[in-house]
Amino acid sequence: MAYKMIQVGTGGFGGWWCRNFLPPNVADGLIEVVAVVDTNPEAFVNAKEGLGLRDDQCYTDIKKAFDENKADFCTVVVPPAFHESVVDIALAHDMNILSEKPIADTLEGSVRIAKKVKSAGKKMGVTMSHRFDQDKSTMRNELRSGRHGALDYLICRFTHDCRKYGSWGVFRHEIPDSLMVEGAVHHLDIMADFAGAKCDTIYAQTWNPSWGEFKGDSQGLVMMHFENSTRGFYEGAKTNAVCLNGWTHEYFRAECELSTLILSHRKIERFAYKANKEWGEEDVAEQIPLLEQPKWGNAWLIEKFVRWLDGGEPMETNVEDNLQSIALIFAAIESSRTGLPVKVQELLAKARANV
């Protein structure tokens, strides 16, 4: 039997949910969208065309939508500052929750949400979609395979030209720490996943150049040290002159004992270590084929969430475990503001104690 759900947010990225991520799971009989909510009635076109919803299933009043429609869970696809208010309404209506990243716009808010969900005995997942994209999943599979030996360090590059106001969505140009909260939240999460360990220490510098039309920092350099001694370095930029490695085309390099693995523009190459390599001998890349399956990213995560509701294992990005991802971001923000390295687990423990 399909789980009944309410989609909160149908404009902007919510349109992608309505047109691309939800329909495959509707077709598979996993979910039934009974209502959608958005403050802008013009955004309902995405739900009507993508999901075939009627006018009476589209609401501008979230409380009315939840009062009038019995559902098993809701999805939250609105700006991070509004996540907690949607979670509160969902829990008041005895619903589980699947939310876009980040959990909230503050670390304390994120911890508070996780605590509320646990106290209510409900399930909440976070769609860290980029970690579960096809190329990143293949890279993770390679690193876990053992054929490349021990992992030493990781490099990630995400560079883009979104310097003009509104080119990265208006709200991202208005919020503080836009790169960290809306960009690095994915990339640092992926690096921690590749490392296979929690982050111990993080040091970051973030800023906004004079030509970046952002109210918060849009550029950043981050160093990470993980609990298994893997190191990581992240270059993130939203105000560069050109886009070298933008969304879904990021550059990752994993330096391993027996291989160098390079993921860039959705292609993975392996350069194998040769103990007896001749001087000047050219390194030859081996192309790593990408894994194949019907769903990736958010569409796959929706299915994972449903399998969890069915009684399966918790999805990897359940809200409690995903606190590690949000802690990375706010540790990086604090490091940039203080100029000092930050102990990530200590910062998270302090937030838990304060909530």
Q: Architecture of the largest domain in CATH?
A: 2-Layer Sandwich
Which CATH class of the largest domain is shown? Alpha Beta
Work out the radius of gyration.
21 Å
N-to-C SSE series?
EHEHEHEHEHEHEHHEEEEEEEHHEH
Tertiary shape: globular
Tell me the number of strands.
15
Would you kindly provide a written description of the structure presented here, covering whatever features stand out?
This protein has 355 residues and is of the alpha/beta class. It folds into 2 domains: 150 residues, NAD(P)-binding Rossmann-like Domain (Rossmann fold, 3-Layer(aba) Sandwich), CATH 3.40.50; 175 residues, Dihydrodipicolinate Reductase, domain 2. The chain contains 11 helices and 15 strands. Helix 4 packs parallel to helix 5, helix 5 runs antiparallel to helix 10 and helix 10 packs across helix 11. The longest helix has 20 residues. It is globular, with a radius of gyration of 21 Å. The two termini are 38 Å apart. The model has no long low-confidence stretch (mean pLDDT 97).
Outline of this structure?
The protein has 355 residues and is an alpha/beta fold. It has helices spanning 13-27, 44-51, 62-68, 83-92, 107-120, 134-145, 170-174, 178-195, 297-309, 319-338, 344-354; strands at 3-8, 31-37, 58-59, 73-76, 96-100, 124-127, 151-159, 199-207, 219-226, 231-237, 251-256, 259-264, 267-272, 286-288, 342-343.
